[in-house]
Design brief:
- There is one protein chain.
- It contains 16 helices and 9 strands.
- By secondary structure, the protein is an alpha+beta fold.
- It has 2 domains: about 200 residues, PAS domain (Beta-Lactamase); about 190 residues, Hypothetical protein af1432 (Orthogonal Bundle).
- It is rod-shaped.
């Protein structure tokens, strides 16, 4: 299971799927980011611009002289100067309903700590606790850099602030006295709950759209990877089969694209290889055939034997329903069936008397020797079996492997019958030839024992047709 998973993870189809999925995901993220920036960021930038302008305008309405005279203590709320500034801030907030809080703050000895001067919301209850901002109350502004910048120029928060006062966006502007000296900063908080909800809504929809896109792209990627990977797999399978010697194998990629052209090129390559192998086999066949004829020329008794066995085998194969091409292949293999006798000494091969045990072992070994000679060229196992198994008997008493019945290929069984008939009707050093009728009778007698009955009947039909043709 683990190996199968690892093969899938390393497969071309998986890699194409992941690549397509990542590509679509990146595009979706980029598109959603652009939409998000356009709908939210641009809107927020416009809000900050407006907020800075409103804070700057409001700061001009505050009386800097009165603000500077407010006592910075809790009792300062009772000061007339506090009340004067307070009234002005309340009027500003009333005119602009979007303002949630408005306040003034001054610097302290600590650059990042400010203190309240006037805050209309002296007592505010938030989440069960009372928040106070009396004159002189200190405030840690280290987390509010734009508030500190507001002492020098109008500024606004770059992000929404979520704290104990709620979700807000704040604008700031300096309050200057008649001499142009900044004495305080005016802060203006606008409720940003709607913007925050809109941002979350857009973000959630972006995530939803991205997920839907990823799911759809996954199905599309799987379909596309399959469409691409299957032709590649067919080409890979074709390459493996060609490497195993199946030079007739062809791939069908289909389509007008580059993969189809690659498939056509593959098939042309396979055709070229098959043609080259056929030429090589033909050359090898003729060389070996010449060796056999040379071998037979040394013995007048076996002259022409291989050629006659090839011709008998060809005709018998056609009678059994073989195609012309397959019958021709059998003929060529049959003509080489005794190639292994090249490894037998001439004195043994042409011996008049009986063989000794050692000599008989050598003679019986010629089918194996023949197979070894032809193996480098004859990749087809059935053709090789003609050479190795033409002395096997139907009942399993033959040699070299003692195969029985259909354990031997039909081609080898055909050659076995044809070889036996030609041997019986040819002269041998130790006997004269038998007439054809005796040989035919022997074939019938040993049908089902030494020979395949179906092959024997087909071969006898071939002989009868030849005799009728000769008589005519």
């Amino acid at each position: 299971m683990k190996d199968k998973l690892m093969r899938f993870l390393r497969s071309f189809r998986f890699q194409v799927t992941v690549f397509m999925l990542l590509a679509v995901f990146i595009v979706l993220v980029m598109v959603n980011t652009i939409i998000y920036n356009f709908t939210i960021h641009s809107q927020f930038v416009q809000l900050r611009t407006n907020l800075k302008a409103q804070a700057a305008t409001a700061s001009l309405l505050v009386d800097a002289e009165s603000l500077s005279r407010v006592p910075l203590s809790r009792e300062g709320v009772n000061s007339p100067y506090y009340q004067a500034v307070l009234d002005k801030l309340l009027k500003i907030r009333k005119v602009n309903p979007l303002i949630k809080y408005i306040y003034t703050m001054a610097k302290t000895d600590d650059a990042k700590t400010l203190q309240f001067i006037v805050d209309p919301d002296v007592s505010v209850v938030r989440r069960g606790r009372k928040l106070t901002s009396f004159p002189g109350d200190r405030y840690d502004a280290s987390r509010m850099p734009e508030m500190l910048n507001g002492f020098s120029a109008p500024a606004a928060d770059k992000e929404m602030t979520i704290d104990e006062w709620g979700i807000t966006v704040s604008g700031y502007a300096p309050i200057v006295d008649a001499s142009g000296r900044t004495i305080a900063v005016l802060g203006m908080d606008i409720a940003a709950d709607d913007i925050y909800r809109l941002r979350r809504l857009v973000l959630n929809r972006m995530i939803l759209v991205t997920l839907i896109g990823v799911v759809l792209s996954l199905f599309f990627s799987l379909w596309l990877s399959r469409a691409v990977a299957e032709p590649v797999n067919r080409l890979a399978q074709g390459t493996r089969r060609i490497a195993m010697g199946e030079l007739k194998y062809r791939v069908d990629v289909g389509g007008p694209d580059e993969l189809s052209q690659l498939g056509e090129s593959f098939n042309k390559m396979a055709s070229s290889l098959m043609e080259a192998r056929k030429k090589l086999e033909d050359y090898f066949y003729h060389v070996v055939q010449a060796l056999i004829r040379g071998l037979e020329a040394k013995d007048r008794y076996t002259s022409g034997h291989s050629q006659r066995v090839g011709d008998y085998s060809y005709r018998t194969a056609l009678k059994l329903g073989f195609s012309l091409e397959r019958a021709q292949l059998l003929k060529e293999a049959a003509e080489l069936h005794d190639i292994g006798k090249l490894g037998i000494r001439e004195d043994v091969l042409n011996k008049n008397g009986g063989f000794t045990k050692d000599e008989w072992d050598v003679v019986r070994g010629h089918p194996v020797v023949g197979e070894e000679i032809l193996r480098p060229v004859f990749i087809d196992k059935e053709l090789l079996s003609v050479v190795r198994s033409h002395h096997e008997n139907y009942d399993g008493t033959g040699y070299p492997d003692h195969l029985k019945g259909d354990q031997t290929s039909i081609m080898a069984q055909i050659v076995a019958v044809c070889d036996a008939y030609d041997a019986m009707t040819s002269d041998r050093p130790y006997r004269s030839s038998f007439d054809k009728y005796f040989a035919m009778a022997e074939l019938k007698k040993k049908s089902g024992v030494q020979f395949n009955p179906v092959v024997v009947r087909a071969f006898l039909d071939v002989l009868e047709e030849r005799d009728k043709k000769n008589e005519a």
